[in-house]
Design goal:
Blueprint: E1 2-4, E2 10-14, E3 23-27, E4 34-39, E5 50-53, H1 54-58, E6 62-64, E7 69-74, E8 79-80, E9 82-84
Length: 91
């Protein structure tokens, strides 16, 4: 997914996905229109950011992680995120 550098995104910093079913848990109250997901302790996924839209996330089921409700998003639904540094709005 290619986004402009001026597009606002909700930022999720996740240690590692849930490997047993290849999903990631995203807090329901933090999901926005555009969501940037970075895995910090998952060497298999690299340090590159991933993108998921609110429409994609809200199609997934909800589950509690023990304290809050989260969307259970499959890793297959995430797209690599690219930020376009050159934007026509910049003068």
């Amino acid at each position: 997914m290619l986004l402009s550098k001026f597009t606002s995104c909700n930022y999720f910093e996740i240690f590692a996905p849930r490997y047993r079913d290849k999903t990631v848990l995203l807090a329901c109250h933090r999901v926005g229109e555009h969501n940037k997901i970075v895995f910090t302790k998952a060497p298999s996924l690299g340090t590159d950011p991933y993108y998921a839209s609110a429409k994609t996330i809200k199609k997934c089921k909800k589950e509690s992680n023990g304290s809050i409700m989260c969307y259970v998003v499959p890793l297959d639904e995430l797209q690599p995120l690219e930020i376009n540094e050159r934007d026509w709005r910049e003068i």
